[in-house]
Amino acid sequence: MSSNRALIVLFDVIVLVAVTLFSCMLAVVAFSKNIHRSIGWYNLMTSWLVYSLSYGLLVGRQEGPAKPPSGLCLFQTSLVYAVPPLVAVSTLCYYIEFYLIISGLRSGSPRQSSFSRTFWLVITPWLVFLVIVLEVLLFIFPGGHLHLLDAATHDFYCNLDNIVPNQVTAAIIICAMAILIPLEVWTGFLMYRNWVVFKRLSRKDRRLLLTVYIRLILCTLAAVMAFVCVRWFFFIMPDATSLVYPTRGFLVLIFLVSIFIAFAFGTQKDLLQAWLFWQPPQPHSSIVFNRGTLTTTSISTSRTVARTGTTEIPTGTRNQAPVP
């Protein structure tokens, strides 16, 4: 088997594994009565599922003398430029949701759930996605660039032999990361500065907040490193094909980020226990989310009760609610 064919097979396997992991994760959470997640979590995982599916449309069609069907190639091209901003903005919106929880707990005052806020946090990534798809289609047809549509030189998926769509995609990702990274740093600072308030939470809730924060940090670092390396290889070293800088092999490594994301969000304790269907279910509760929106839960700094909406409960008691 040639090195190019081996890399294509490896790429296809990674794509299929990513699709399987995200599909199983979403199915388990959706059908389990003991696992609760926020709408933001569903939105983020769905974004990564669409990301993985978009790059797998040519699985089994990358090789051979015949080119991929033009309609399929056009469809994939419109997606591969739109899904990176989709996952970037979805991650940002999910983190904004997490930040609002931390900010609410820090202030010690109830945070009322807002339908409009939740709606825009969910819909914004998909609006960006649709705008990029439209931009690519307008670039191809009215722009007269249909001749640039072809399978990429690495044979993994279709794209355009033009730098403009890449620049638009990169600009949106950079904007999202420019907001996300400082927000992550500021959230960590708030958690550290107000740790006395967070100590009023139960041990499981503190652990939940810390693990979600660490998972988000690691995922952001992995995504940023992948993005920076892609920009470096394809703009600074566009002709790098040696063993030291193998473009095709590097693309395979880049796509491993989706596998990393799937494991980062799919290895939480309640999700892992859901696979052990022969064991008695163990409900997992948290004061972080409630029915897919931000809760009104707060930790009082002057009284010995935690408020959830209009109901007061002892600080040692927790209500059943989704995990971020």
Automatic annotation (TrEMBL):
<keyword id="KW-0472">Membrane</keyword>
<feature type="transmembrane region" description="Helical">
    <location>
        <begin position="212"/>
        <end position="237"/>
    </location>
</feature>
<feature type="transmembrane region" description="Helical">
    <location>
        <begin position="41"/>
        <end position="59"/>
    </location>
</feature>
<feature type="transmembrane region" description="Helical">
    <location>
        <begin position="79"/>
        <end position="98"/>
    </location>
</feature>
<feature type="transmembrane region" description="Helical">
    <location>
        <begin position="249"/>
        <end position="267"/>
    </location>
</feature>
<feature type="transmembrane region" description="Helical">
    <location>
        <begin position="6"/>
        <end position="29"/>
    </location>
</feature>
<keyword id="KW-0812">Transmembrane</keyword>
<keyword id="KW-1133">Transmembrane helix</keyword>
<feature type="transmembrane region" description="Helical">
    <location>
        <begin position="119"/>
        <end position="141"/>
    </location>
</feature>
<feature type="transmembrane region" description="Helical">
    <location>
        <begin position="170"/>
        <end position="192"/>
    </location>
</feature>
<protein>
    <submittedName>
        <fullName>Uncharacterized protein</fullName>
    </submittedName>
</protein>
